[in-house]
């Protein structure tokens, strides 16, 4: 499995988990996670963006 495939799997699992909890996956999450999957941002950058979006920084 390539790194891109592995990252895609992790992102899909996270989205599935969110759906199971009754949460909706936002367009922002989808766009930012796609940047992570394609290697444009690191996992640390992805977390930083999510935290900033929710005012946690």
UniProtKB/TrEMBL annotation:
UniProt superkingdom: Bacteria
Residue ranges occupied by any Antitoxin VbhA domain in the UniProt entry: 7-53
Name listed for the protein in its UniProt record: Antitoxin VbhA domain-containing protein
Record organism: Paeniglutamicibacter gangotriensis Lz1y
């Amino acid at each position: 499995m390539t790194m891109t495939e592995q990252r895609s799997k992790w992102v899909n699992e996270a989205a599935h988990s969110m759906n199971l909890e009754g949460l909706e996956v936002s367009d922002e999450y989808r766009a930012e996670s796609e940047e992570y999957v394609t290697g444009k941002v690191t996992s640390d950058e992805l977390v930083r963006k999510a935290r900033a979006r929710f005012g946690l920084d």
